[in-house]
Amino acid sequence: MGDSITIDGTDQDLALSRSDFLSRQEVLRRRSRRVKQLARLYKAHYWDLLEELKRKHKEYYWVYGKSPFKEDEKISGEQNDRKNLGLGFKLKCQISDCKEKAMALTRFCHRHILSDPNQILYRGCTFLLKSGQICKKPVLRSTNPRHCPVHAQAAEKYLTRALKRAGLNVSSPSKVTPKLHVVVAEYVRQIQTKRREAQRKSVSKIKIEEKTSES
């Protein structure tokens, strides 16, 4: 596909360009012709991009191997020679006791990519675990809400249960947009429940300490 594109029916458009008014059929015929040509151009551009993607994937496969998530095999003497010669040997993750391959253009694997201070593509999962800690597994920065795949499903289940408690019986929270006051009321109820549980635990700890001090 060249840089210059010739519009189909240019001669007809030139003949009608001097007209003050166009009939409905002429307008629809011209629009239909241009839309069909635009669709053909989009299809050709799509297949060009697909071929470019195949070429770049082939280059990536050749340089970095099959996948950065696969465990690296034991380093043989031949691989050591290639490493010394700088022939594209794939390094392991820099975290100790980690046997996974490092991702492209970094020294860390996907599981430890947040240890790289220079990377800006990933951030930690913010899902709160039962132990009170945060998951912090790497997820793409564009992911919203910031949950890893496992905890994204868990958050969806929790939201479905919360909507059912609020009187909205839905199979999936993505199929309905609940009213804001309903969601806020449910979140407030959950926060208050967690606070009451924390207060009960703290009171029980104080009673245990008092009994041990008296004894």
Give a brief rundown of this model:
Helix content is 51%, strand content 3%. It has 215 residues and is an all-alpha fold.
Task: Report what the structure shows.
The N and C termini lie far apart (90 Å). The chain has 5 helices and 2 strands; from the N terminus they run αααββαα. It has helices at 10-16, 24-64, 77-85, 149-165, 180-214; strands at residues 122-124, 138-140. The chain has a two-stranded antiparallel sheet with strand order 1-2. The chain is mainly α. The model is unreliable at 68-78 and 80-89 (pLDDT under 50). It is elongated.
- In angstroms, what is the radius of gyration? 30 Å
Structural class: mainly alpha
Mean pLDDT across residues: 76
Measured as a percent range, the helix fraction is: 40-55%
Q: What percentage of the residues does DSSP assign to strands (E)?
A: under 5%
Note the overall shape.
elongated
The end-to-end span amounts to: 90 Å
Order of helices and strands: HHHEEHH
| Helix segment tally | 5
What are the SSEs and their pairings?
Layout: H1 10-16, H2 24-64, H3 77-85, E1 122-124, E2 138-140, H4 149-165, H5 180-214
Antiparallel strand pairs: 1-2
